[in-house]
Amino acid sequence: MERYDVVVVGGGIVGAATALALTSARPELRVLVVEKEAELARHQTGHNSGVIHTGVYYPPGSAKARFAIEGARRMVEFCREQGLPIQVPGKVIVATEAGELPGLFRLAERGRANGIEVAVLGPEELHEREPHVAGVRALHLPAAAICDFAAVTRRYAELAQRAGAQVWTSAEVVSVRIDSAGVVVGTTRGEVEARVLVGCAGLHGDQVARLAGHPVGHRIVPFRGEYYELLPERRDLVRGLVYPVPDPRFPFLGVHLTRMVDGSVHAGPNAVLALRREGYRWRDASLTDLRELVAFPGFRRMARRHWSMGAREVWRSASKAAFARSVARLVPELAGRDLVPAGSGVRAQAVLPDGTLADDFLITEEEHAVHVLNAPSPAATASLPIGAEIARRVLDRF
Questions:
Q1: Residues 6 or more apart from 192 whose CB is under 8 A from it?
Q2: Which of 31, 44, 86, 122 is the one with CA 20 to 30 A from 192?
Q3: What angle in degrees, to the nearest 10, is found between the helix axes of 13-25 and 149-162?
Q4: How many domains does the chain have?
Q5: Number of other residues whose CB lies within 10 A of the CB of residue 160
Q6: Residue 64 CB neighbour total at 10 angstroms
Q7: Shared-domain flag, residues 346 and 245
Q8: What are the E-state strand segments in the chain?
Q9: Distance between CA 193 and CA 27 in Å, rounded?
Q10: Same structural domain for residues 94 and 133?
């Protein structure tokens, strides 16, 4: 049985960033990353919009705010240093009606409290920046950027491997045994020993923690986000990143428009309950996953509390016309005929026993393990400081 100092479970952007942080701080450590898929960044990391968030949405002092602000700066620097695709087109958050203005102004106050450059635009100033976007007021965030997070993940892993880390793909974790000496991790490629286990398993983060005997009160609930793409001849309707004012009851940002690094423009995502943890399509369903969800009291409480919102999201998933109407609130010239399907992603959202959606990063630890139990957006943006924080907690044990 091979012996390592640290085994990182999960080859998404947080797991790869953790391996990079560990090997950068202590090159002599033996670090192994195990990923169940045949390649890295196959799930949340490889199915998001690529937006580098500024931190404007997050309460001052929260982990999300601290990590997003530092992470955004470091992500732009990293992509430029490494020659990875990166653009900084800026972002507008648009109030399309007067009732959204209080929420817009609260975001402006929050952004300034977080030290972010924010400008409030009137209709004419908005028109100058985004000529086809309609709104009564908007916020402009010039530092908002876009990149390719899957490419970033691969580069993190490459750098970690150059420093001595190993990466196993097609290595699903099937067992974890922890005793006073450390941890034994069983994978489909064999067993390994380590002093510390780091769980960065995203959609399966709570399951890995339970395998390790860690008490987990919440459950990961998968929410699918579906995207459409604008036809090439309609891409000129959007210059940069165009977002609505988000509903403060939910940690989702609403259907928005994003000019990608390849020049395409994506619209989405919505947020509909997925029928399995990796349920990228309606037909992707798992009775095991559904039984586990229904048996969890927190999920039932959440469903009772937010059933009407859930029904609207299901309708927007089923009806292209309904989806197009959401997009047209921002860009009135857009219609359903301008949109073509562009895939989907699944967000791993921790739901607490009382039915609330965890609104911040959640990292817990015990003697021989550190578990990342909630790391939704802006985790990709914040991956470098998150990886550094996990590495700090791990290195305290050496």
A1: 1, 2, 3, 4, 7, 32, 34, 184, 185
A2: 44
A3: 30
A4: 2
A5: 26
A6: 25
A7: yes
A8: 2-9, 31-34, 51-52, 86-87, 91-95, 119-121, 137-141, 145-147, 166-168, 173-179, 182-187, 190-199, 219-230, 241-244, 256-259, 265-268, 272-273, 339-351, 362-366, 369-374
A9: 19
A10: yes
Encoding tokens for residue 47? 């199915």
The domain that holds 93 is classified in CATH as 3.30.9.10
The answer to whether residues 347 and 249 belong to one domain is: yes
Write the DSSP assignment of 31-92 as a string of letters: EEEE-SSSSSS-STGGGS--EE--STTS-TTSHHHHHHHHHHHHHHHHHHHHT--EE---EE
Within a domain: 100: yes
Same domain, 159 and 137: no
Q: State the CATH number of the domain containing residue 383.
A: 3.50.50.60
Residue 212 lies in a domain: yes
What pLDDT score does 253 carry? 81
Tokens 């400081």 correspond to 385
What is the block-wise mean pLDDT of the chain (398 residues), using blocks of 10 residues? 95 98 97 98 93 94 93 98 97 97 96 96 97 98 97 98 98 94 95 97 96 93 96 97 88 88 94 96 96 96 92 93 96 97 95 93 94 93 97 94
Task: Dig out the tokens for 68 from the structure.
Answer: 């997003």
Let me know whether 295 and 343 are in one domain. Answer: yes
Domain limits at 164? 2-45+150-218+359-395
| Interatomic CA distance for residues 326 and 322, integer angstroms | 7
- Whether 18 is covered by a domain: the verdict is yes
CB atoms within 10 A of CB 189: 12
Residue 180's contacts (CB-CB under 8 Å, 6 or more residues apart) are none
In terms of domains, do 140 and 154 share one?
no
User: What confidence score (pLDDT) does residue 161 get?
Assistant: 98
